Amino acid sequence: MTLTGDLLIGGEQVSATAGTMKAFNPAEGAFVEPEFAFGGPAEVDRALRLADDAFDSYSHTGLEERARFLELIADKLEAAKDELAARTSLETGLPAAQFEGETVRSAGVFRKFAAVVRQGRFLQTAIDPAQPDRQPIPRLDHRLQKVALGPVAIFGAGNFPISYSVAGGDTASALAAGCPVVLKAHNAHPGASEIEGRVIQEAVAASGLHPGVFSLVRGSGNEIGEALVDHPLVKAVTFTGSEAGGMALYRRAQQRPEPIPVFTEMTSVNPTFVLPAALAARATEIGTGLVQRGMYNVGQACLKPAVLVAVEGPGYAELRDAAITEVEKWDARPMLTPGIHDAYLRHTRRHQDNGAVRLAEGGAPDGGAYGQALLLEVTGDQLLAEPTLREEVFGPALLLVRVSGTEQLLDVARAFRGQLSATLHADAADRVTAERLLPVLERRTGRIVFNAFSIPQEVSYASTHGGPFPATSDSRFTSVGMGAIERFLRPVTYQNFPDDLLPQSLREANPLHLWRLVDGELTRS
Amino acid sequence: MTLTGDLLIGGEQVSATAGTMKAFNPAEGAFVEPEFAFGGPAEVDRALRLADDAFDSYSHTGLEERARFLELIADKLEAAKDELAARTSLETGLPAAQFEGETVRSAGVFRKFAAVVRQGRFLQTAIDPAQPDRQPIPRLDHRLQKVALGPVAIFGAGNFPISYSVAGGDTASALAAGCPVVLKAHNAHPGASEIEGRVIQEAVAASGLHPGVFSLVRGSGNEIGEALVDHPLVKAVTFTGSEAGGMALYRRAQQRPEPIPVFTEMTSVNPTFVLPAALAARATEIGTGLVQRGMYNVGQACLKPAVLVAVEGPGYAELRDAAITEVEKWDARPMLTPGIHDAYLRHTRRHQDNGAVRLAEGGAPDGGAYGQALLLEVTGDQLLAEPTLREEVFGPALLLVRVSGTEQLLDVARAFRGQLSATLHADAADRVTAERLLPVLERRTGRIVFNAFSIPQEVSYASTHGGPFPATSDSRFTSVGMGAIERFLRPVTYQNFPDDLLPQSLREANPLHLWRLVDGELTRS
User: B521 vs A409, A514, B197, CA distance in Å?
Assistant: First the structure.
């Protein structure tokens, strides 16, 4: 595929209307061809009118038709794997092999959502049959299914250029729900975005769907994102990125004449708690594992275990030594953008200004936007006294928190804001403390991991990638896993309908063989 | 029960700290004893600290224990039925028999939510077992259930003093989810609110629950509601009322440091569309039925069919004549408050200033806050040209819209904002038009009714009482029906947990006999 740098609006390739940009290779410190188009509010409007035009037909596609469309995207993604991985490597300075894996995983996500669509359980069909003889008044027949919300605006994320970007889980789940997508590509990887976008655009055309089902726009600055969030035809927004960026979009969308759901996944330090018996038994393993997980993707992962809390006592020194040894093994690597690298330096300096002790560092950077691995340490008292020490440092820094005892460990747990995940390392002798800690963690996180590390994120039915604020802006939903589709659906009840005017999912004979809730009981008949 | 007029905070009765009020009997035009206490932000804070204290224990109650608590509320409500109905009648000027029925229905709602709790399906448990041999990396065991959000602030509604108020569906569904409730009582019916609140307070005590599970506050002006919405310990808000009031709360909550979900149910004209063959066949029946439904509760119902759209042609004159005849039968009746009556006069006048023709009126008011039934008519051209004609007039006014043909009927359908419900009257010969109209309605409403009228609202599994903005502020949820519980839940995943640290709902042996999604398949084993 020859990259043209165009915007993809409906079925068309659209040239720049607001300047252009080039991708930046952070490993080489150099810009890369070709030029990529920027658009503005006019392109957003054009994409959304097409998406709105596409909505009625796309949201009413049959389950099999929609599932095949998602599978076609998966096939085409895999076919583009080598090209996509090579280009992404060029735009990130990270190894192509990482992106081959990410392409395969993303294709798998589209296939999993195809299965979700075929199963049809996301329709959450329920039937309360008529009760003509009920006293004091008869009951009319009621039948409920979920329907698609409308066109969805998706902000491609910077840190995973495939799986959280154009061909990522947000797009897969919105398309699975029956929502057309207008995607704002992230400027850190414009070529990868174009390849992914053209894969989807081609699948739309090959499936005979309305071209408005998918568009990709790109812009400089905030104007294009604001135009997307403000547009009256957008009915939901997803965003993965910083708390400042996410909350700006969130609050803006809530001030529209018609507020709309905005699912932002923002910030999490994913605290790890090591209870005393586990610490005494497995200090080296935990310290080494922490760093190995923490350095994944140069520490630029939502699920990085950024903070480890353990009681000063047997094993603590060993855990610290193991972490020091491991951190020193890691070379500096290119970060996503120079801006993110600057923020990394600023935030690690802030931690140290606030009393964090520098325990170890990895190999020195060659220069440029290379992130150097860093291990810091504070006491529980310090962490409790200084809120910024509990905030995320995006990049390859890890923080050990040495607490004075299990009571302070619990106090530290209570001091954290909402998290995507928390991890507990505990042995049998830690049971009493574990039982006290679990409800504290449950209130503050969407996922609790026991005696393991929390990444990589599974994409399955029992996955939660969400959590209380500021991990996300709506903890009732997940952005990863099969439940992610629920962000884009709403219930509609059909009351007293003749069978032949009902949607297929609700007809008396159950032609789609769905699990349905009939009078409150699940049945497939 | 002797009314004391106190606030109910946790297990205690709390005296006024910010003045008092008396209930107003709109039929007599006179105030009624006793004095009811107003509180302020200090009482809100006290209630929320108690609710937060109660959260860990209440949200972890066993399903059977929680179900019995809800059933005890139902029993106590029914036991208080005569007293509650008499007091509500006094505070509304409407017949006690109406409120006996409402009490029985509300008790039924608590029993239905008890059944929902026992079934445990609201936990939406999912299990993805470990796959230690999976390539390229093993899968850890993942288990998901829904957990309660935290303390919920509920604004009691004015129009249904029981079923949408203190002992209404919002309270039932929040308690069913495991969330403590702080209720702001509506000042239109303080005595009814106290009776309902004391029923719940007694059930909390008799069930041995933490007293912070339920509190009732009351205040003058907006201060108390703002204090509730602003309080950092509140994790969700529900509101039923006007668009202006609901959106003020909604936007305020989104500007908090930590935004929270606010489910507001606000405004809907529930348009009725009569297609030509149905009109020709059943004009009189439809015209009469429209008015009979529309006059329910003096037209102060969320589901009032406020606007009827029909093509000028065979049957139209008969429909109009039937509606005129029926409207003229209705006497003026007391409205909820003098302020609502003033708004009713203002809005009916605005409709007429904007060209609506006065076709008929009911009996004249005795004076005071009595709402007089009113039938108005506009053309489709007028409705399309003037947006305020598409807005709700809260009270016993109905609007006929005479459209020039089915194309204009479709245009009118497209012009409406989001609705709680829409109704379609169609016969076999209307099939083609019905099939064009249905997707238009589906996009704009949470419920479509076929050849019937849309009230009363069923409280069942297939119920939706929700819809696109401005019917609600989040169309992904319903406020009535068993799905209402979903507003107050969020997913948590337990990863790699030992069986005996898992919640009961997720243990391997399925001790609660729940339907669970295991590897994507529903099973009860």
Answer: 39, 12, 42
